[in-house]
Amino acid sequence: MTDAQDTAADSSLRTTGGTPPDDAGSSVMGAPTPLLEPREGIPPVIADEAALDRVIAAFAAGTGPVAVDAERASGYRYGQRAYLVQLRREGAGTALIDPVACPDLSGLGEALSGVEWVLHAATQDLPCLREIGMVPSRLFDTELAGRLAGFPRVGLGAMVEGVLGFVLEKGHSAVDWSTRPLPEPWLRYAALDVELLVDLRDALEKELDRQGKLEWALEEFDAIASAPPAEPRKDPWRRTSGMHKVRRRRQLAVVRELWQTRDRIAQRRDVSPGKVLSDTAIVEAALALPGNVHVLAGLNGFGHRMGRRQLEQWQAAVDRAKALPDSALPQPGQPVTGPPPPRAWADKDPAAAARLSAARAGVTALAERLTMPQENVISPDTVRRICWEPPASVDEESVGAALAGYGARPWQIELVTPVLVDALSARD
């Protein structure tokens, strides 16, 4: 049993059986133990500046890594803002903070500067944490650590159960976290999400070290922590579900106009765009190009529950798209900034197709030896780009430089470069 599992077993966690199992973890004989209550109970929600100041002081005085999580209201509200922030640190306990009542948590972020933050699937939470002033300088991602260590299931519940031997209740993951006040069962769930996160981090660190992968993981975590904010997606309307059915430029213009109208309404009302108008309805209207409200009302997604005024605003959007001159219509497809789809390589460049086939086979074999997913060994997009347009000189120095140029980490360059040199040197 690892030290982290000892810690979990000795921390007086409240479970259905009253005590944790003697030896928690994936090697345990017997059923895992449900974790039903935070060890200090459910903390009060921090919703005013005075209480926030006390939390900042407590967490600044704490020791060791800090577990961090955030809950959003995806599917209910516009955007991806945080509606609850959970933290836990040795010496400070657990805190639940309402970022609606306390929208500026930069003071807390500064108090934790230099402290390692432990998150699960960090890239999901970092954007919404950044919005409220919380940006880690160091982090440990338990989901990514699980991938690198070769765990087949890397969700938080699966990892806590497999590594520490406790079952987390996950029934509230998709609720509307913008609800106020938050129900007690939801708060219990939120507190338990950070209850064992540091214990999990400690166990995974030991496992990665045992496998000789700890330095690789640290490079990955540094890359996440130092990554700049993502650029806004160009032409986000092109990601409308069902777009593959839309072929003509005039129809594309209808999708764009309806999507942008929906987005403005959703932002103004602070609701998920899908609650304003479904993607299915947008595509239906684009394909049909309705000439009036009566025709529009007969389309899927514009049924009898939609009022006349709403129908008129959607019809107006369709009419605006129909009135555009040809020069203002969107082009089919997005500008290609990289190699073509691999399925087209055999016709466009058979030698490149052969290089890609060899590279994929080599990366697959390497990933199997390392017992980790191929996409964590090296980005598939990076492999495609190098195979489509190899460096002028196919040697380890040139290929390694190309990998670095595409953002590969040093550990990836060291392992993948020989594989790609062999693939790029192979004759078709």
Unreliably modeled segments: 1-29
What is the top-level CATH class of the largest domain? Alpha Beta
Number of strands: 9
Read across the widest sheet, the strand sequence of neighbours is 3-6-5-4-7-8
Largest sheet features: 6 strands, mixed
Proportion of β residues? 5-15%
Total helical elements: 20
Instruction: Report the end-to-end length measured between terminal Cα atoms.
Output: 52 Å
What's the structural domain tally?
3
Q: What do we call the CATH homologous superfamily of the largest domain?
A: Ribonuclease H-like superfamily/Ribonuclease H
How much helical structure, as a percent, in the residues?
40-55%
Reading the helices and strands in chain order gives HEEEHEEEHEHEHHEHHHHHHHHHHHHHH
**Looking at CATH, which topology of the largest domain would you report?**
Nucleotidyltransferase, domain 5
Overall shape = flat
CATH architecture of the largest domain: 2-Layer Sandwich
Helix/strand-derived category reads: alpha/beta
Radius of gyration: 26 Å
Average pLDDT confidence is: 91
What would you say this structure looks like, in words?
The chain is α/β, with parallel strands linked by helices and 428 residues long. It has three domains: 3-226, Nucleotidyltransferase, domain 5; 236-328, HRDC domain (DNA polymerase, domain 1), CATH 1.10.150.80; 342-425, Orthogonal Bundle (DNA polymerase, domain 1), CATH 1.10.150.80. The protein has helices spanning 3-10, 49-61, 106-111, 122-131, 142-149, 156-164, 184-195, 197-210, 214-226, 249-269, 273-276, 279-288, 293-297, 308-322, 345-348, 350-370, 374-377, 380-388, 396-405, 410-425, and strands at residues 14-15, 33-37, 45-46, 63-72, 82-90, 93-97, 116-119, 138-141, 166-168. The strands form two sheets. The chain has a six-stranded mixed β-sheet, sandwiched between helices. The chain has a three-stranded mixed β-sheet with strand order 1-2-9. It is flat and about 65 Å long. 36% of the residues are buried.
